[in-house]
Design a protein that fits this description.
By secondary structure, the protein is mainly α. It has 2 helices and 3 strands, in the order ααβββ.
């Protein structure tokens, strides 16, 4: 003999109601609206810190280039001289930067190099997320000065 499942038992086995699913979705949306701005802020802060570290590392690589060759890369050679030996530099002992991707800032723009520098013997810098010179405080230049 088979047992008959009552409607209350079959409903309990059926799953969630539409109202219960809507309540869960509303709670998830509220949590996302609270967490998302904080995550975005932390991500932009992390990119700024990464850029600072990379600018310092590139500055050290330029110093190593100078120690080996007795000269700084020219503006025309730029930071690529840290990866590929420029012409007429027999004492080049690089690469001073392991990956070509290290010459790109966290926002996808190439790091900039200026010799002679305006802030020191040479300048290595990025214009920040908006890639515009003289931008606002939230998107300021980051350099080795």
């Amino acid at each position: 003999m088979r047992k008959r499942i009552t409607t209350t038992t079959s409903r309990a086995l059926g799953g969630f109601t539409l109202l219960e699913l809507m309540v869960v979705l509303v709670i998830l949306a509220l949590l996302a609206s609270i967490v998302a701005p904080r995550v975005t802020h932390d991500l932009s802060h992390a990119k700024l810190e990464t850029a600072k570290l990379q600018v310092n590392a590139l500055g050290q690589a330029v110093d190593e280039f100078h120690l080996d060759t007795g000269q700084f890369p020219t503006d025309a050679e730029g930071l690529k001289a840290l990866v590929v030996a420029p012409a007429n530099t027999p004492s080049w002992d690089g690469p001073y930067v392991k990956k070509q991707e290290s010459l790109i800032d966290p926002w996808g723009h190439p790091y900039l190099y200026r010799y002679p520098g305006q802030h020191g013997r040479f300048d290595v810098y990025t214009l920040g997320p908006d890639a515009k010179s003289g931008s606002t405080a939230s998107a300021h230049e980051i350099g080795n000065w």
